[in-house]
Amino acid sequence: MALQRELIENENEVNQLSKDALTKTGQKPNPVKLYWLQLVRWALASGKLIGFNHHLLLFLELLEGSEPKTAMNFLEGNERVRKMGLSSKEKWDPVDLARLLLIHLDFCMTQKVEGYSKIHARGSSHRLPAKSRIA
After folding, report:
1. 133 contacts 63 by C-beta, under 8 angstroms
2. Can you give the C-alpha Rg of the chain in angstroms?
């Protein structure tokens, strides 16, 4: 069986922090998927994160199906991890890191997707589709 090569995008700091956090949870990081998406998925599926809006969670599914470089460019933008305030010098709790990543993703959506903030500010309660992979 051939060894899976780690995505080049997984070499950056946000993904290395996420890889460490996944390991702390007992999860085995998959090198061919973005570690930050794996961490967020674990936190949501385990019920450790709740209260995020429907549209953000649906967009998370889109990112999981997109090219790794595209997902990283959306999350990091032009300023990379500075906006998130991440540092490998800090010890991150896996749930706190996943929460920060989702909050940052929400910020990115507000900045980059026209009308996003208006959609989820209405306070309408949307249910996730039955076939959604979001836990």
Report:
1. no
2. 15
- Write down the H helix ranges in 1-135: 13-24, 35-45, 54-65, 68-76, 94-112, 116-121
d(CA 106, CA 112) in angstroms, rounded, equals 10
Helices (H) and strands (E) in the chain, counts: 6, 0
Q: Which amino acid does the sequence have at 132?
A: S
Domain ranges of the chain: 11-120
Q: Which has the closest alpha carbon to 86: 97, 95, 77, 94? A: 97
Q: Which amino acid is at 127?
A: R
Q: Residue 1 is encoded by which pair of tokens? A: 């069986």
118: CB partners within 8 A, 6+ apart: none
Judge contact between 14 and 102, C-beta under 8 A. Answer: no
Distances in Å between the alpha carbon of 73 and those of 36, 108, 123? 13, 10, 29
66-119 pLDDT, tens digit each: 999 999 988 887 555 455 667 666 788 999 999 999 988 888 888 888 887 766
Chain centre distance of CA 131: 20
